[in-house]
Structures are given as structure tokens and as C-alpha cells.
Amino acid sequence: MQPKFWAVLILLFTLSATGQGPLSRQLSLNEITQNAGTIVHGQVIATRVEPHPQYPNVKTLNVTLRVIDPIYGGLGKQVTYRLFLPPRFGPPQSDYRLGQELVLFMHGESQYGLTSPVGGEQGRFRVIQTASGQLRVVNGLNNAGLFNQLGSEAKAHGRAMTATEGALSRQQAGAVSLKDFLIVVRQLAASKVTQ
User: Fold this and answer.
1) CB 3.0–4.6 Å: which of 10, 17, 157, 161 could bond 116 by disulfide?
2) Number of helices followed by number of strands (H, E) in the chain
3) Helix H segments across 18-85?
């Protein structure tokens, strides 16, 4: 096939996967978890813009994380993701800054070696520290609607909603405790393994 065809195909995949195209919709935390090939809490230690090895006209961003917590996907102490950089996007450093702490829900790698966060900004959570020292997480949609379905999802798995899930389900938007968030993510990831 023609290289232009692949470039367009990669662009369409990325736009839908990053939430920039018409195929995006608001996802629940369970949907984000179930669609993730890897889930990692880590700190950005390197970023590098470079051409795709097979398609030199396609720019990519390599993001390397020091793994703080390999939540799902059998990760080691370090992981590198290659992301497609659409030409119209701004500097990648604004999304992945050195030293930045993130919780990423990443799609499995495509046959072209590319990946992206599940639901785009919905699957990319910044870890922020409050003035009182608490660690909190928030995604690009300010966590809007992220926890709305926790009760029905617990029921679908034949269990009662935990106190942590109950507290999160009452929050419509805004940053939440990293600790509570990771507790719920682990529960959802465990159900992913057993399904």
C-alpha cells in the first residue's frame, strides 16, 4: 500500500484514540481500564521527537517513564511508549514534561509500534500535589463523569460497591485522591484479568 495511505490511516487511528475525532465519547473508569493494554503510575524521565522508523514523514514522540507502580501489564522499572504526533498539535512537552508524574492507561501497541492513552486525554491522568501535600489525580476532562457507573459496574461483577467506590461515585468532576483512585483501578484491573 501507498505510504500516504498509511499516514492517513495512522492519523485517523490517533484522532479517534486521542479523543480529537468524531469517534470519541466519554468513557467510564471501567471502560478505560478494560481497554488498556498497560496501566502504569510513573514519572516522565525522557521525551524524544523522532520520525517513525518505517515512515520517515510521520513524526512520533517517545515517552520514557520511570515506573513507580506497574498496575497492569507486566511492566519493569522503566517503560517507553511511541506516540503519533499529528502535525496540527502543539509542542509535545506540554503533555509529557520531564519530571511529571502520570497514571497512564495505554492501548496495546499497534503493528506499527504506536500506542496512545485510552480515550485520549481521558486515559492520561496528571498527579498533582495540593498545598497540604496530598497527591491527587485528574485527567484532561477534569474527571467529568468518570465515576458515574461504578455502582452498576460493581453490581455487574456480582459484588457490592466498596466504600471507596461509593465516595468516588458521588464526585461528578475534579481531582481525586491518588490513593483512592489506585484502589479502585486495581479492583477494576483484577476483574479484567478474570473476565
Assistant:
1) 17
2) 5, 7
3) 29-34
Which cell numbers in the block locate residue 65? 517513564
What is the separation of C-alpha 175 from the centre of its chain, rounded to a whole number of angstroms?
Answer: 15
Extract the C-alpha cell encoding 31. 471502560
Say which amino acid occupies 120: G
pLDDT in tens for each of the 195 residues of the chain?
455 555 544 544 544 444 444 345 789 999 999 999 999 999 999 999 999 999 888 889 999 999 999 999 878 899 999 998 877 655 555 689 999 999 999 999 999 999 999 999 999 999 999 999 999 999 999 999 999 888 888 788 788 888 888 889 898 899 999 999 999 999 899 887 655
Cβ(166)–Cβ(127) below 8 Å: no
Those residues whose C-beta lies under 8 Å from the C-beta of residue 136, and which sit 6 or more positions away, are: 127, 128, 129, 130, 175, 176, 177, 178
